[in-house]
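Duplicate of #3305? Posting structure anyway:
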């Protein structure tokens, strides 16, 4: 449960970007889309040494003519576009709400609240019955950079719902307004994860994630990620608390004429898997249509 809450909180608590197509960053590596994209169709495969792949699922993204994401769908080996999210917008273009659905049924919905400066200050998550189950609040500095967010998980009437928990995320910036650190604190107020943002000699982004939780010390106490000039992740390495390399990820990509990637091969290496060391490869193939 703690890992699931941390993952969800981390996704919601990253420094806020504008909600346009050029800023939309789907998937684990955070790629920006260029051009008047109408739709993206991804197919996912596990690759074997002989080059053949096993289809594992899909991702479909649909945008409107203003470059706003209106629908995100995911599927598995059996059913494509099985579950996902739909987004609605205010007349001024700001995100108004989102619905999570599976198999045609809505499971929950988000409502976005803004202040007079047009900054997103609250996200409220409701179940279909109207129960408020999660609240995210945000505070900003004088430049408009997100300083702090607080994610509150609220208990429900059912006995399986967790007790009320609050997870806090705080950000710091340099004099140019670029992120320096992100710190995620657990319900007990103690830091769980700290991310540091830096640059290499060529000015490319490097992030270092330090996981302070006890269960991470043997495998992922520290993860270093490198990025290209566009901010796309190019490689990552994870280390145990004693400095031992435990995992490695690298990416190979092909791009179309507009600069959007259309094929990505991810190669992973695990040094502490049950049959370690073990290597795997995964393929994501995109079909992009434009307005």
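Output from current build:
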């Amino acid at each position: 449960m703690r890992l699931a809450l941390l993952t969800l909180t981390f996704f919601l608590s990253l420094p806020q970007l504008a909600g346009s197509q050029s800023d939309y960053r789907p998937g684990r590596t955070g790629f920006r889309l260029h051009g008047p994209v109408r739709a993206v169709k991804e197919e996912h495969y596990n690759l074997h040494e002989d080059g053949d792949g096993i289809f594992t699922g899909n991702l479909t993204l649909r945008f409107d003519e203003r470059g706003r994401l209106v629908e995100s769908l995911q599927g598995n080996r059996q059913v494509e576009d099985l579950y996902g999210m739909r987004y609605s917008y205010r007349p001024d273009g700001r995100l108004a709400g989102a619905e999570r659905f599976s198999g045609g049924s809505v499971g929950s919905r988000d409502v976005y609240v803004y202040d007079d400066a047009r900054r997103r200050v609250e996200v409220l998550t409701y179940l279909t019955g109207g129960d408020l189950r999660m609240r995210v609040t945000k505070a900003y500095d004088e430049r408009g950079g997100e300083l702090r967010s607080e994610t509150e998980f609220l208990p429900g009437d059912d006995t399986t719902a967790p007790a009320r928990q609050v997870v806090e995320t705080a950000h710091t910036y340099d004099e140019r307004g670029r992120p320096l650190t992100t710190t995620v604190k657990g319900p007990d107020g103690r830091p769980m994860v700290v991310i540091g943002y830096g640059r290499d000699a060529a000015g490319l982004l490097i992030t270092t994630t330090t996981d302070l939780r006890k269960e991470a010390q043997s495998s992922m106490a520290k993860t270093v990620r490198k990025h290209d000039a566009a901010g796309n992740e190019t490689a990552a390495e994870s280390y145990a608390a004693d400095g031992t390399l435990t995992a490695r990820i690298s990416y190979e990509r092909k791009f179309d004429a507009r600069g959007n990637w259309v094929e990505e091969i991810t190669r992973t290496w695990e040094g502490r898997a049950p049959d370690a060391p073990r290597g795997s490869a995964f393929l994501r193939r995109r079909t992009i249509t434009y307005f």
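Confirmed duplicate; merging threads. The two ends are 42 Å apart (CA to CA). The first strand starts at residue 37 and ends at 47.
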